[in-house]
Structure formats: C-alpha cells, structure tokens
Structure of L-lactate dehydrogenase:
Amino acid sequence: MADKNGTKITILGAGNVGASVAYTFAVAGTCSDIVLVDINKAKAKGEAMDIRQGVSFGENVEIFDGGYEDAKDSDIVVVTLGIARKPGQTRLDLAQTNVNIIKEVMPQVAKYAPDAIYVVVSNPVDVLTYTILKCTDLKPNQVIGSGTALDTSRLRSIIADHVGLSPNSIHAYVFGEHGDSSFIPWSIMNIAGVPVDEYCADQDHADLDEDEIIDEVRKAGAEVIKRKGATFYAIAMTVNKICDTVLRDSKNIITVSTMINNRYGISDVCLSLPCVIGSNGIEKEVSPKLNDAEIEKLQASAKALRNVIDQIQF
C-alpha cells in the first residue's frame, strides 16, 4: 500500500461490526484509507472488495485487507475483535474470552501503531479498554472506549420521540458502565436549558418515567439482538462520529469510556463520563455537578466493573 498524505484508519475485526464501521467510513468519506484486519483473511478481503466496488458512486476511499503490520502510520485503530454477544448473554459474560484475545493481539498492533488513537468497540467495552491500557504502553488519552456514547444516543432518541423534537435538541447522557449498571444523571438533563421534567410540564407532554427509560436504554441492544441476532448499524454510526471528531480535531464532548482516576471518588477503572475529544484523543475530562444519589449510582457502576476486573486473569 503506497504512503500518501491522507487519513488512515485500521479496523481490527471484519465481522458484522467491523464491516459496518468500514462501510460507514466509506459512505461518509471519513478517511482516505481503510485497512481491514481479521484472522479470517478471506472475510476481510471480501468485505474490502465489496466496499471498494461501490466507491465510484461516493467518496474516493482506498480500502484494503491486511495484517497487523499494516496498522503502521494509522491515525486511528478501531478495535472490534472478539466474540459477539449472543441472545440472553450479558456483555460481562464475554469478559475473559475477549480479554484473552485482546491480550494476545493488542501488544502486536500497538508496536506498529504506537501513536494512533485507539477506539475500542468490543464488549465488555469498559473492561477491554482497561485491558488495552494494561497490556500495552499506550497512554490513557490514546484509548477511547465507545462506552455509553451509543446508550446516550439511544436515550436522546427515546426522549425526542416523547417530546416530538430532534434528538440533537436533547441534552441528556448515560454515565457509567456500558451495561446493566449504567444510569441517567437526571439532574443535568435539559432541553434548551430547561430541565426535561419542566419542559414536559410546560409543553403538556406526559411525565417521563425515569425507571422505565433507563430500563429501555439498557435493554435496547439486547432487544435488537433478540430480533436480528446482532447489533451493528447504530454502533457503526457512533464509531464514525468518534473517529470523525478525532480526525477533524472537533473538540466535541462525547460520553466515552476512559481510565478514571480521582473523579467522583473513583479510581483505576474505565467507565463513561463526558470527555472532550480531538486529535489527541481524550483532550479533557468534564465532571458535571451530580447530586448525591447520582454519585452513588456512578460509584456502584464502578464497583460492578471493578468486581469483574478483579476476577479476570490479565
């Protein structure tokens, strides 16, 4: 593959998620070069060929299959390695299997692309983001777990449907684990600066049920898996947003999973809180003022993740 001035993203894993991410990059014109790497070389080649054959109708993107060494000079490496979640399985059930895969592959890839920003998508994403930081010399700002970025998007869509607005006008977040202990910090949720409950009352919308909404957000992925066997489009759009933000140095604030140290009484665990994302990856951490009940929920989420980390063989 010829060196050129452009932006290069390597995607590790060419399964449903990896292929959908590559397709989304190609359609959006997010980068100039995409490399797909998979243990199943024929699958990676087939996916690359399939996308390449359509680019004359869109943005000009070079897309190849390759090996770990082809990650060299990547601006971003997207990690979709591992076994996907099956119906009825929690993300944490996958932990040890996928930790083992990450431990084997990531030190090799990091050797070829030590300066890249790594966007981790594989589940359990918080545990695997932590694993990558432990098994490589990558710095915490370089490793971004997709975390609750997707949960946040799901939450905004749910509230937008309820109040009849665009999800872009809903300022709401999901914090904590990308999983069963996640929570919504209701106290900071607003629409045009108006607290959501107040907005609903002013505009004659029915009240929102907090428990119902967090339940719907948490189960959203499992519901899709139950019906179609896997989730990949929404996460591909999420990853594209994160990568586009890095490549454009956009300084967007996104809830992503990152190593937490001394925030809200939490340390040495990866979970999602708002971060400013730019060309250096995690540029700044944002710590909104939460009430005591919310801090308790965040700490409980950290504890749930810490319990898993403590049981894993790194």
